[in-house]
């Protein structure tokens, strides 16, 4: 090897391990971890630039190594921004506690002293089973004057009727100009409360959402308060790889590590749902959300920064919604995010426009959508091109230099970020997801980079509309092709007579690299096989005991089991006398009397609800969705999550969902209201739903 002579190749790796152990476990220090990772990056780059590029060679010899170097440097630039973000996390829960205490005291003394809040539910084509949960959740908010408005851009008669029946206000407009941003802006023109909470049609707020967030507005410079997007179902990666009980959803790293870090730099941003905004902020930037991008939420934050307002982030799960329920829905959502993020580069209100501080320009750069994709592409293609065409990404490299320079960088980035975001960042799962996304998102991001105009806002399909193909054929075929080509490269170069690679001393490292890629591509292929969603409604663990009464007077009580809108499952120590088809009654805390039919007997009793009134069903929805939800609450270690991923190959379920409908090419024709503005004022949640149960109206009996 030319250049620096290496006498102790393991020394940097040993030093790095010691520093990570010191600053990560023995003497926890976030600055120490970041300094360690930063020094490792600089040490690697000085070697990479000075020793591995054939600077004295011609353009042909320089081309491929320089392309690879450019991708690495771009990825490390985004990595440096990530480290800066993780350097200053903020926990605002103590502030929220103090704010809630002040608000409750003010409410007790004089409810009229608390400002009115308009609560917007923006909807376009979501089905009833999704929308009604959000309407009831918003109507249940603990606040003396919360005015719930459903902004229906689909102009659907049944939505209007649902709003009237439940007590929510209803607003529609004659056109769909500006998509979601235009819908919210129209809602702002017909309402007047000084604060506006916004929820997507699938996000159900906890009852204390406003009490936990409104206290931050005591500080005049706070323009927006944002809380995480939490989910009561599992995303496609969890479902298709069977990791529901071993890993949280893929957005926990963003919402529980990145966003608190951005908050430390006053660079948290509105995420489109689960936020509260001052109306004066809207007025200061022209009267509403900017409509120049399909990611109007991020643009709103940058516009507010220019007016001196700050977005505050409260890292508490105060609203729960639906994660994408199929790979098709997943890519509709992520492609929209990527397109919108790249699109804002070209807008005056974007990160390159006037009026922003340098740190905000850097933190709002959307380059990660491209660099992460390129990193995944080059991670897979580089060893393939080396084995099949003898194209080396760098020169003057051997096993010692890999151990001395390359391995410390990999360990520093993966282990360091894991220590900075424990229980939120899972390196192996992150690499697999990035590889999976790259097939579909990188082309869209690159296309938007060169053609940013004319993008169409696509709503993420939810509920019964979220079906897709039983498999993601494009990614599946691509992953299998890359596995085949990688295997061919290994086989060709395994022969002393037919090998293509001139530097055979590098083949053991390249073979290890290639096998790791093949392993991840196999898991990517498994993610492409859509697993069936066997239940129409999500089930939640029982929080309190349930009493069940059979038609013969048999009384059963259990606090073990689960419950959904459609039914109840109870775990019993011993089999009961109940039989399939028996009619039973149940007393569920906070809900009241429910009736149903036994669908499963034995130690596991399954009951299908038979609602005797809409009010009882509404009570159940409010009870299930407006309290604490424990789905996706587990936070395993990075090693435990990696082990769970590896085990999936040994226990792979290669079956696919049967009968999953494809997304229709065109939305089915539905009855629409005429193209004009309609405003129906909210009447509020029925006192029977908001107040305590009147047990005299729901007697426990043994009647069939």
TrEMBL record:
UniProt xrefs under InterPro entries: Glyco_trans_2-like, Glycosyltr_2/OpgH_subfam, Nucleotide-diphossugar_trans, PilZ_domain
Entry keyword set: Glycosyltransferase, Membrane, Transferase, Transmembrane, Transmembrane helix
Recorded topology in the membrane: Multi-pass membrane protein
GO cellular component: plasma membrane
TM annotation in the entry: 6-24, 31-49, 61-86, 362-390, 402-421, 428-450, 470-492, 504-527
Residue intervals of the PilZ domain: 535-621
Pfam families: Glycos_transf_2, PilZ
Record has Glycosyltransferase as a keyword: yes
Residue ranges occupied by any Glycosyltransferase 2-like domain in the UniProt entry: 119-285
Chief localization: membrane
Molecular function terms from GO: cyclic-di-GMP binding; hexosyltransferase activity
Stated name of the protein: Glycosyl transferase family 2
Entry's localization field: Membrane
């Amino acid at each position: 090897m030319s250049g620096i002579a290496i006498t102790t190749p393991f020394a940097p790796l040993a030093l790095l391990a010691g520093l990570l152990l010191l600053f990560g476990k023995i003497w926890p220090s976030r600055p120490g971890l970041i300094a360690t990772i930063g020094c490792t990056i600089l040490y690697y780059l000085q070697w990479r630039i000075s020793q591995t590029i054939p600077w004295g060679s011609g353009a042909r010899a320089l081309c491929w190594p320089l392309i690879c170097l450019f991708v690495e440097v771009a990825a490390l630039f985004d990595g440096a921004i990530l480290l800066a973000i993780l350097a200053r996390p903020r926990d605002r829960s103590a502030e929220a506690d103090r704010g809630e205490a002040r608000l409750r005291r003010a409410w007790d003394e004089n409810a009229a002293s608390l400002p009115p809040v308009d609560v917007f539910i923006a909807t376009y084509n979501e089905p009833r089973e999704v929308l009604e949960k959000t309407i009831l959740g918003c109507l249940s908010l603990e606040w003396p004057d919360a005015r719930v408005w459903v902004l229906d851009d689909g102009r659907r008669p049944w939505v209007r009727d649902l709003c009237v029946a439940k007590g929510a206000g209803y607003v529609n407009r004659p056109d769909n100009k500006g998509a979601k941003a235009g819908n919210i802006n129209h809602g702002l023109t017909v309402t007047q409360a000084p604060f506006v909470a916004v929820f997507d049609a699938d996000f159900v707020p906890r009852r204390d959402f406003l009490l936990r967030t409104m206290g931050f507005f005591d500080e005049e410079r706070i323009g927006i308060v944002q809380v995480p997007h939490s989910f009561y179902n599992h995303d496609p990666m969890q479902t298709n790889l069977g990791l529901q009980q071993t890993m949280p959803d893929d957005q926990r790293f963003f919402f529980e590590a990145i966003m608190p870090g951005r908050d430390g730099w006053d660079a948290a941003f509105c995420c489109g749902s689960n936020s509260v905004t001052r109306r004066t902020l809207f007025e200061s930037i022209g009267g509403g959300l900017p409509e120049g991008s399909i990611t109007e939420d991020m643009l709103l934050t940058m516009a507010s920064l220019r007016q001196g307002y700050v977005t505050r982030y409260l890292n508490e799960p105060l609203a729960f919604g639906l994660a994408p329920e199929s790979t098709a829905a997943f890519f509709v959502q992520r492609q929209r995010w990527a397109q919108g993020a790249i699109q804002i580069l070209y807008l005056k209100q974007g990160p390159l426009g006037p009026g922003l501080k340098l740190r905000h320009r850097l933190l709002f750069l959307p380059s990660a959508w491209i660099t992460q994709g390129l990193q995944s592409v080059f991670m897979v293609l580089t060893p393939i091109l080396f084995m099949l065409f003898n194209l080396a990404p760098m020169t003057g490299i051997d096993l010692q230099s890999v151990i001395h320079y390359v391995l410390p960088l990999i360990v520093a980035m993966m282990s360091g970020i894991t220590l900075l975001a424990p229980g939120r960042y899972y390196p192996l799962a992150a690499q697999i997801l990035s590889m999976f996304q790259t097939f579909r998102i990188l082309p869209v991001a690159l296309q938007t980079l060169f053609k940013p105009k004319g993008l169409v806002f696509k709503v993420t399909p939810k509920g019964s509309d979220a079906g897709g193909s039983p498999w993601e054929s494009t990614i599946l075929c691509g992953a299998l092709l890359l596995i085949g080509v990688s295997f061919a490269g290994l086989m060709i170069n395994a022969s002393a007579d037919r090998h293509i690679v001139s530097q055979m001393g590098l083949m053991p490292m390249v073979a290890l690299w290639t096998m790791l890629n093949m392993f991840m591509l196999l898991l990517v292929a498994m993610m492409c096989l859509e697993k069936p969603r066997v239940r129409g409604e999500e089930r939640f663990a029982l929080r309190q005991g349930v009493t069940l009464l059979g038609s013969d007077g048999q009384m059963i009580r259990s606090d073990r089991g689960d419950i959904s809108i459609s039914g109840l499952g109870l775990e019993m120590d011993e089999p009961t006398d109940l039989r399939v088809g028996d009619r039973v009654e149940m007393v569920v805390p906070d809900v009241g009397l429910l009736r149903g039919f036994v669908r499963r007997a034995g130690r596991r009793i399954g009951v299908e609800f038979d609602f005797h009134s809409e009010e009882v069903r509404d009570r159940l929805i409010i009870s299930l969705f407006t309290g604490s939800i424990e789905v996706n609450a587990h936070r395993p270690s990075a090693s435990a999550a990696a082990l769970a991923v590896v085990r999936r190959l040994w226990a792979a379920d290669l079956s696919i969902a049967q009968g999953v409908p494809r997304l229709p090419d065109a939305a089915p024709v539905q009855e629409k209201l005429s193209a004009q503005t309609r405003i129906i004022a909210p009447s509020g949640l029925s006192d029977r739903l908001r107040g305590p149960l009147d047990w005299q109206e729901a007697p426990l009996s043994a009647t069939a």
